[in-house]
## 1
Amino acid sequence: MTDDRPLIVGIGNPFRSDDGAGPYVATKLGGLGFLSVTHEGDGTGLMDLFERHRSLVLVDATLSGRVAGTVTSFDAIGEKLPAELFHYSTHRFGLAEAVETARALGSLPERLLVFGIEGADFSAGTALSPAVQGAADVLVLQLSRELADGRNG
Amino acid sequence: MNERVLQVDALARVEGEGALYVKLKGDTIEKVEFRIFEPPRFFEAFMVGRDAKEAPDITSRICGICPIAYVMSASHAVEDALGISVTPEISALRRLIYCGEWIQSHVLHAAMLHAPDFLGLHDAIKIAEVHPELVRNALRLKKAGNSLMEAVGGRSVHPVNTRIGGFYSAPKKKELEALLPELDWAVGAAREVAVAFSKFPFPDDSHDYQFVSLRHPDHYAIDGGRIVSNRGLDIAASEFNDHFYEEHVARSNALHGRMRDGSAYLVGPLARYSNNYEQLSDGAKETADMCGLGRTVRNPFQSILVRMVEVQYAFEEAARIIRAYQPPSPSFIAAPPRAGVGHGCTEAPRGICYHSYQLDGEGLIRHAQIVPPTSQNQPQIEVDLTRVVAANMNMQDEDLRWRCEQTIRNYDPCISCATHFLKLTVERD
């Protein structure tokens, strides 16, 4: 059974400060009535979601040395995900591995957008850094408009 | 003299953050260090003052791969302090969810993280390109483990249905029986994966390990038992500190576990298998035999096979428990707070996980001690690295570095747990 509504997946650990950027975005969009889940743990669980949903938007924190709050986006159906960008977390089999393994197995969903928000602080704590919080709020607004357009269209 | 330094600054395909540093002067090994730089998390300190009932849920957050080990060891320890004995029905349900965790953890490590080492592949993505069927089956096996965790624990990571004394609610027999067809498929599929892995070219290595594991009178130890070794140790969990100690070393944020005589010891699949082989199911023993494993396995590189044998056993055991399942009623045993000290020890996928709590009369924690498996294995990992480097001195740096990383991955180390992980540096003089 696949679900046609786009699923927003916030990836990360909300108890590790900016690693919680993905769950923050997903929770906010969930509050606006969109289908959303948070994901913590290893990446194979993401592959289960690819089987059940035709369209997914993944949001994760990145650690690439860019300015905190920098948002990178990928259309994962058309391009390979750079593993080094999404490798920070202690997930032993992370987002990039899950997406690329699914690609190798021919089991990617029809639509898969990936957003990365550059974090600054990954220490224990539940607050996002100001720059990350700002970028996450902008992404919530952007996605809510795009998803609403898709919903109405 | 030629100085060689082999260094890995951030080990891949392990849980957490660590590094490896090896320095050689000619044929002399000057230094072999497994360094864990993941910051310490001070769980034992912030448990003090919390209600003992919170211990399983808080400590399960130490690890997203083996939360059940923490839930169960903490529960046993608090129950020991409060004088609670759970019913056989609660015990069976606990063993069932623990089977789910063994399956999840072992399959992820064996198929996705460890198998690439033997295929000369750098990551799990390549293995999916080269052996897609193997990866599909492995993912399906892991998913079956997740389903067990969800059915009993409420979700596949960090369960919400477990508590001191048992479970908030007992799953319905029908809900569990719905899992049986997939579990029955998985028993055969786990064997197929084990036999396929047994064709790998295993490095020639062997060590006379001091195997430390639990032993249970009735079954292959998972969720409790006495702490035993192949050198005659046989103690209750409450005697842990009389026979083992932890020490701080400057190169690691994780404490190193040793026997009181200072010797290193090994916990995990090889230890469990070798100490408790007789208690495996006939099917699991048959698979071990098909893989060419004897009753004792001393080649750490073959731990991947032992993990898959244990996966098959866990599926058989889960199906057996479900077929005999009687929902526990009540679903938990309650007890009033009382002052006391309790100890708990269970078999995490990586080896024994020991907890001890001292409680006051109001049920608040006054002292907490948590000894995870990777802390205990650290000295043994360095012994293994030294032996492997000595035996492979003639290898080029790149190959030797790979072999060293593989030596660490034999342990499926959980660095987040131990610090509560890996860079490799090899220096040659």
## 2
Amino acid sequence: MDTLIQVSSALFLLVGSFLCISGGVGILRFPDLFTRMHAVGVTETLATTMILIGLIIHNPDFMVDIKLIIILLMSFFISPTASHALASAAMRNDRLWESNEKPDSKQVKSSNP
Amino acid sequence: MQHTIILSLSLAAFWLANSGHNTALMLSLGAISITIVVYIAHRMDVVDHEAQPLHLTLKIPGYYAWLIKEIIVANLLVVKHIWLGNKSISPGFTTVTASQKTDIGKVIYANSITLTPGTVTVNLQGDQFMVHALLRESIKNLESGEMDRRVTQLEN
């Protein structure tokens, strides 16, 4: 039983770490602010969840588990708000991809051929 | 009145979950701080159906289950495209129309869009959401309107 807990917690932490690294690679690779924000989205949703679930499994103390769950819920409410604030601030300052096209019509526009 | 009671109860649960002390002194200090917070919340006039959306209580768990599934799928897609590199992405803006009537429904919809990786709500005007997406697939997925429909169902 103890081994099972250790192994499953390690597995969750490993997957979470891989997703965190993927998010970091995405930030370095992607060409502009908005696409980089999507890469950060991976880190702030699934990677956080996986790491916190790993920690919850690892820790038998009930009080600590509750705090980890609160952190998880908070991050799910705070991160979209922060992303939205960042995106609309970027929008006002016109930080678009090189071509600087303005999103003005209803058509789906793509700047990558 | 109903909202005040629920606010006090949830604050009490939050306090107990965070403190872990059960002596009389600590509990009474907790009760005093909850009373002060509820009083301040009343003065700020924020104790209403928007801060405490009780009418959503029954329907929200099903929506969350569906949203978590969507988040996992979207995450895997974005991770795949991170490792495939710049050539594989097709970023662009789109405008989606929200069919929600209330402000809280619109906020839930916009936040759900932002929470799924690959799509971010950039601007919100009336019922028009401007969304930036990493992939054409995510735009198509959004325009199929399933998320919109599910959030609207929450409201009624």
